[in-house]
Amino acid sequence: xxxxxxxxxxxxxxxxxxxxxxxxxxxxxxxxxxxxxxxxxxxxxxxxxxxxxxxxxxxxxxxxxxxxxxxxxxxxxxxxxxxxxxxxxxxxxxxxxxxxxxxxxxxxxxxxxxxxxxxxxxxxxxxxxxxxxxxxxxxxxxxxxxxxxxxxxxxxxxxxxxxxxxxxxxxxxxxxxxxxxxxxxxxxxxxxxxxxxxxxxxxxxxxxxxxxxxxxxxxxxxxxxxxxxxxxxxxxxxxxxxxxxxxxxxxxxxxxxxxxxxxxxxxxxxxxxxxxxxxxxxxxxxxxxxxxxxxxxxxxxxxxxxxxxxxxxx
Length: 314
Description:
Layout: H1 2-8, E1 16-19, H2 26-56, H3 63-92, E2 96-98, H4 99-132, H5 137-140, H6 143-169, E3 178-179, H7 186-191, H8 198-232, H9 236-264, H10 273-297, H11 300-311
Parallel strand pairs: 1-3
Antiparallel strand pairs: 1-2
């Protein structure tokens, strides 16, 4: 019995994990590496461009663009939390990651995702005040108040995810040390644990649902009032301008919530590795690529600022 117990603890908290990655076909590894490297550069430079342009242009230093700057920082951070390791796995075929490296990757991914949820809700509220209460906008959404909302989003995001990290770090992983994913995420880790994962699943499901549902309801209610206010505007051109200020944010909200709900708002038993890897790729790669594109193409002020910024170096 003692020997059996020792064997069970071989893959416990002091060892390494091995990740399956994206493909078992060697011929695809280098083309996928090149594609993802190119995407990573687009994400980094696109979002850095947004941040720099907003910081250097005084006309863009408003609550809406301040939230956009934080969103770009999050895109840079959580993509950098995942893609460099994935690129390294593709080029070196070294799929191992230390136990604490895995826990840290999972923690920062969750923390940044939670922060983005709250920032998107804050951006929805900002648009609600701007369109439904334009005369009170300066009072209700000053730079100081918006900075406070952003600080609250970051704080809650990182505190909320600490519970998951602590509970998962105490689990034993004796069933296997192979994570069937391309990064350390909650559900793939729970699938290979031989410990009782009930507490983690309850925290993940109800804690995640509470945060996601609260932010989603605030966003939904804000847009109900926004759309109602826009429909009351008599002139078509004024309606178009009002809606254009929200369309970028609404597009990003739909992409974000669509992928997050598919990934996390379901029991662990329904986990399907191939499908979940695809959905995770949409969230971890596609959304950060499209965010700066959507916001820059749909916003004349950002486009003008980006053109001026580009002309400085041409």
